[in-house]
Amino acid sequence: MAKKRIVVMYGGKADEHSISCISAAGVLRAFDTERFEPIPVGITKAGQWIVGGEDPRGWNMAEGLPVVEKTAGARDVVLDVALGQDGFFARNEDGTMESLGHVDAVLPVLHGPYGEDGTIQGLLEMMNVPYVGCGVLASAACMDKHYTKVLLAAAGIPVAPGITIDARTLDLDSKFATNGDDLVAQVESAGLEYPLFVKPSRAGSSFGVTKVEHAGDAAELAAAVYAAYPHDWRILIEQGIDAREIECAVLCPKAGDEPKASWPGEIVLDKRAGGDDQFYDFDSKYMDASASHVEVPANLPDDVLERVRETAVKAFKAVDGTGLSRVDTFVTADGEVMVNEINTMPGFTPISMYPKAWEATGVSYTDLITTLVEGVLR
């Protein structure tokens, strides 16, 4: 039986470029090469698609943040949309095109804008190429935290109180300092309690997220909004929730099937035990191995764990999810569950929460990848 040929895409133009590279490295190392032939396609930060570049399987975070670059021997990838699954080509140095062969499916291991936001998904839909993960609507809606909350609230799923700011209307010359009092007034009008978390609506991996602790401090709030602005003009100001952050992996490899939820897990911030006022920022996630560890299942009563699983599946359905997603929730001391956000292509390294949660639920890393790919094959 011929192996199915799977394009694995990684890198991309988003802030999460390097995280995508590390996720793809893990996926490619765990690929079932008895069933599949992976075709790694890297995307540079400038948006150039290449094959034959540096092998992602050699990357690891301990050696720094990897970047897709067009190295010697790498070739541009060119698409012929009309040819669909046979429309993937590589451009040789002399300008001639060489087919990459029939592509059975695409696994877009891409995080953030231009990969997780419906753009790649729309292109693959136009080409009639099967792909792993959520479709255009779910990808776009879940990339934008504002609209995620709108959809979830409409489905009756609790979300953190907050407001959304259009930073394009603010005074950039003053770094938003002249808008500080107005921002404080909007927070007070919405009845938000401190601490606040200020975050870009369309970014991931905690880029541009700031904790604001001092009530009424216009300068601190304005500075936090300004820190988020490079990542997105739409910015959320949310009330900090006194709760544990519990994450649940949802799996639905074949569209139309009933989604399944893993055991919920928790990222334990180890430095909090030493008295640090720590939150789960980029360094805690990726750069400081001593900052946190994963516990699956989370240390919660069974009935609360089941409530998290039910909420995760309900949220996944509310956004029309398919394939996979990681649903991040807040669980309060009295057992209330509210959804923080939905990641439609969560971190996929072997130690990331999504595969770790499924491993604890009885699905190995390799089997998880195989299940997702087989779910979209025709």
Task: Provide a descriptive summary of the structure in words.
By secondary structure, the protein is an alpha+beta fold. The chain folds into three domains: 4-133, 3-Layer(aba) Sandwich (Rossmann fold); 162-239, ATP-grasp fold, A domain (Dna Ligase, domain 1), CATH 3.30.1490; 242-374, D-amino Acid Aminotransferase, Chain A, domain 1 (2-Layer Sandwich). It contains ten helices and 17 strands. The strands form three sheets. The chain has a seven-stranded mixed sheet, with helices on one face. This is D-alanine--D-alanine ligase. Mg(2+) 1 binds at residues 328, 341.
Give helix % range.
25-40%
The CA-CA distance between the termini, in Å, is 15 Å
Query: How many domains, in number, for the residues?
Result: 3
> How is the largest sheet built, in terms of strand order?
6-5-4-3-2-1-7
Global mean pLDDT: 93
CATH topology type of the largest domain: D-amino Acid Aminotransferase, Chain A, domain 1
Shape: globular
Number of strands: 17
Low-confidence stretches: none
Rg on CA atoms, Å: 21 Å
Family: Belongs to the D-alanine--D-alanine ligase family.
Active site: 16, 205, 352
Main location: cytoplasm
Catalytic activity: 2 D-alanine + ATP = D-alanyl-D-alanine + ADP + phosphate + H(+)
